[in-house]
Structure formats: structure tokens, C-alpha cells
Amino acid sequence: MQYIIAIGIFQAMMIMTLLWRNRLRSSADDLLILLVACIASHLAIKFVIFNFIADQQVRNQMNTFTGLCYGPLLYLYALKVSQEKTFIPASKWYVFLPFIFGAIAYFTVAGVLYFSTNSDYRLLYWYNNVSTVAIVGTELCFTYLAVKVSRRHLAAEKHLERKMIQRIAICFCLISALTLPFFVRFSVTDFIHPLFIRSVVYAVLTYLCVWIGYHKLLFNTQTRVSYLFNEVSVENVGNLGNVEKQEAGKFPALQRKSPLSEARQKEIWEILESQVKDHKIFADSELNLDKLSIATGINKYHLSETLNTYAQKSFYQYINEYRIAYALSQMQILHRKEIPVNVLSLAYDAGFRAKSSFNRYFKEITGFTPTEHLKSLQ
Questions:
Q1: Which fold has domain 2-219?
Q2: What is the pLDDT of residues 233-259, one digit of tens each?
Q3: Do 210 and 36 contact (CB within 8 A), yes or no?
Q4: Cβ neighbours of residue 45 closer than 8 Å, sequence gap 6 or more
Q5: Which of 15, 101, 282, 297 lies 20 to 30 Å from 377 when distance is taken between CA atoms?
Q6: pLDDT tier at 280 (50, 70, 90 boundaries)?
């Protein structure tokens, strides 16, 4: 079991670091980072207990209070994703009251057991029973609220965020189901060793960290596509001809001598975003880095460096995100007007030169094929 815990700590720390260093993370992602940090601290405390505490009663019974903040953090994340511009997580500070009381009780019991010359485990027994009920109760209650918020308030274009919330909720429900036998007499713990059940719980927490990292780091483009989905409209696709004149000369063509500063990269990024979004440059099927440089007036080497280091994505990944966002918006508009969608025409309009490329990038970015997405709109 110690190996599972050690692997979990390593995975949680790695995912937490990668999420923190992601330049394009949203404010909601900070709550996920905090959740992964709590899982890491949970596993770290257990690692210390199982490796350095000789008391068998403590090893088998001492619940970790960090489990009391899993449900509240998921609930706050769901609220933040659904109300990104208006919701302030600190306004719901009271959801962490069980966590605060749990921490006080945990350190009180730990202090009594450490300093007491005559070990009396009645306090530990009562702490374990009460904390078990509190952990299961908060996880189930706040998990339900998080799923409820995600279903009611997350729009169709944020279906990956909704899927992630539901996946985390399933993991928390599984952990709660595995926790209950520790509280119910004549349960499965009479047949299965409690340490095996704990090992499964720690494996689920490790899986949860890895899956959060996988979703946010490999599929974090969905967050960006959701933003672009709301920004890309139908009317201005034909404005490509006027783009080349507007920002020309703002960034003279210089030889690349040294890496750009972060401030300069941010400035280039903002101009690039404005130009690509406002003038629908992505709809040009022949678009390449040279043409994008001419259209935006930004040195192509500076563009490449900004995309690679600031946005952490390639040129084609960046452009294809806009194309898929445009396709999503067109699907939504045509569905509302009850007009049949021709996937091939839509692919060409978005800037793709082949239906196969459109299908591949659509699946890679959204997690669904175009046909599956159209069915979900019905």
C-alpha cells in the first residue's frame, strides 16, 4: 500500500506543478489545483502514518481530515465554471466549516495520543466514527450539488467540463461507498482486510489526479474552444481582404536575436487574438505562418515563439481551435434554425481542405465526432 501512496503523491505533485505552470489556465483551474494539492497532502499524511507511526490503532483508524474539503472544492469549481466572470469562491467560505472543525479535531486527537502516557483509544474511536460520517456526508452532499450545477448551468459547448465534474463525482461516490464499511458493523471488512479497501481508495485518488491532469493538459483546448465558440460569429467570415492593411508596420520585421520577454509575448498574443478573432483569418484554407505574419503585421519568428512558449501550442493547433470553434457555432445556429448540416460544406467554410482533417481535429479538440455532436444537439 505504501507504494500506491508514494506513486499517488508523486503523480499529484507533478500534475499540480504542470497545472500551475500552464499559462492559459483559468481562474476555475486554481480550484482544481487546490483539490489536487489536498489529495497530495492527504496521501502524504497517510505515508507518514504508515511508515513512521508504530501504533497499530492509529494506523488502522485515524481518518485524515483533508477528505472534508474534496466535495466543497468540486462544488466551487462547478460554480466557477458556470459563472466564471461573476462568481467569487471566497463568498462561499462557509462550505469549508466541516474541514476546519475536522482539522481541529484531528490535531486534538493526535496531540492527546502523542502526549498521553496511558493510551485510551475511546477518543480515537469516537473521532473516527464522527469523521467518517462527516466525510461521507460532505462528499455526497456537495458532489450532488456540483453535478446539479453542471447539468443546469453549463452550456452545451462546455460539455467536457461537465463530463469532468461528473467523472470526479463518480470517484468521490466510489470513495464514499468504500468508506462506509469502516462504520457499519458486520460489513465487508469482516471478509476483506481494511488495508485492502484503503489501498483501493488511495488508487482511486491517484487515478483522479492523473485524470484531472490528462483532461486539463491534453484537452484544455476545450476551455479555449468554449470561449471562442461564444466569440466567433457568422457575419464577418469574408473580411479577410482588409486584414493585411490594418496592423502592418506595428511590428517591424526584425531578425530573431534573443527570446522575447514575457511582456512582449503577452502583447503579441493579445494582438494576434484580436486579429484572428475579429477578421476570421482562420477561415483561409491556405493560411500558413507567413500569411498570418502579413495579415497581423507581426514578425513570423515572433509569432512562432509566442505560440510555442506563451500559448504552448503549435501554429496549426492554434488555428484549428478557431476553426473548430467556428464549426461548433455554425452547428448551433443551423440547429436552432432547423437547417440540415452538411458536414463537408461546414469543414470547407471553417478553413479545412479535407473532411478527414476536420473530423480528426474535431474529435481531438471536443472529444466527439461531428456526427456525435450533432446528435447531442437534438
A1: Rhopdopsin 7-helix transmembrane proteins (1.20.1070)
A2: 444 444 444 444 344 444 444 344 447
A3: no
A4: 64, 66
A5: 282
A6: confident
Q: What percent of the chain has pLDDT over 90?
A: 22
CATH number of 225-377: 1.10.10.60
pLDDT tens string 40-92: 999 999 898 888 888 777 877 788 889 999 999 999 999 998 887 788 888 99
Query: CA 67, CA 166: separation in Å to the nearest integer?
Result: 18
Name the grid cell of 67.
477528505
Sign of torsion over alpha carbons 41, 211, 146, 166: negative
Query: Three-state DSSP class for 288?
Result: coil
How far CA 275 is from CA of 216, 298, 320, 335, in Å, comes to 26, 11, 15, 28
Reported for 114-121, long-range contacts at CB under 8 A and 24+ positions apart, including other chains, are: 119/55, 119/57, 121/57, 121/61
- CB burial of 103-137 (b: ≥16 within 10 Å; e: otherwise) equals bebbeebbeebeeeeeeeeeebeebbeebbebbbe
Same fold, 2-219 and 225-377: no
Cell numbers standing for residue 182: 469502516
Q: What is the pLDDT of residue 194?
A: 66
DSSP state, residue 219: S
Place of cell 496521501: 43
User: With the CA atoms of 289, 290, 295 and 296 taken in that order, what torsion angle do they form, in degrees rounded to the nearest 10?
Assistant: 60
Report the phi/psi class of residue 312: left, alpha or beta, with left for phi > 0 and alpha for psi in -120 to 50: left
pLDDT band at 312 (very low <50, low <70, confident <90, very high): confident
- Cite the beta strand spans of 101-247 per DSSP E: none
The Cα 13–Cα 9 span in angstroms is 6
Q: Which residue has the cell 505515508?
A: 47
Eight-state DSSP code of residue 111: H
Answer for the pair 358, 314: CB distance below 8 angstroms, yes or no: no
Please provide the DSSP assignment of 258-279 as one string: SPPPHHHHHHHHHHHHHHHHHH
d(CA 122, CA 76): 36
Tally of helices (H runs) and strands (E runs) in the chain: 17, 0
